[in-house]
Amino acid sequence: MTAVLFISAILLPLLSHCSSEISVPVISGRSYTLQLEYQNADGTNSKKAEGIKRQLFDETGGKWQYFWFCGGAKKTCGKWVDEKNKTIPSGPKVTKTSEGAVISNMQIRDAGKYARLPEDPNALTAELQQVGVYVQDGPTTAAPGKVYKY
User: Fold this and answer.
1) DSSP state string for 18-44
2) By CB distance 3.0 to 4.6 Å, which of 5, 9, 128, 132 could disulfide with 23?
3) Each residue's pLDDT tens digit, 91-123
């Protein structure tokens, strides 16, 4: 009985504060590569993603946006779309390479959660595979011959 009380009183509140999200800082104007190959939670069925999705940290209200690679005959391949398949004109360029999905010229407005599609059928595993991409302004450079003092 004491062990159960210990677990519920001490460990559960601590576990609820743990963050399992992978976080990646990216300097504005640079690229980020999201790995596309993954396995299901049970360790079987190695897969390559057919696209990626993102949930921005801005005013979009937690809605996901989708980008499908052009491997199939999809109308929306090669561009960012919303949940209703309407094109989003301001999304960053995405290129599928052997390294993964290269998201180019990321800007502060592109910060958010990114994930592969399709996701793992296990909801917990799918959430753990999401990557928080935090885009930050880079360092300012001094003009030749000029020194900035802080």
Assistant:
1) ----EEEEEETT--EEE--EE--TTS-
2) 132
3) 899 999 999 999 999 999 999 999 999 887 788
Question: Length of the chain in residues, anyone?
Answer: 150
The predicted pLDDT at position 20 comes to 61
Q: Rounded to an integer, what is the distance from CA 142 to the centroid of its chain?
A: 32
- Pair type for strands 131-136 and 22-27: parallel
Quick one: tokens of 74?
């999809």
Instruction: From residue 92, give the alpha-carbon distance in Å to each of 28, 102, 131, 147.
Output: 12, 10, 16, 34
Residue 60 burial by CB count (10 A; 0-12/13-18/19+): exposed, middle or buried? Answer: middle
pLDDT in tens, 124-137: 888 888 999 999 99
* Rounded (to 5) percent helix, strand, coil in the chain: 15, 30, 55
Residue in the block written with tokens 């399992």 = 20
Q: Is the dihedral of CA 111, 136, 116, 94 positive or negative?
A: positive
- Which residues are bridge partners to 51 per DSSP? 68, 117
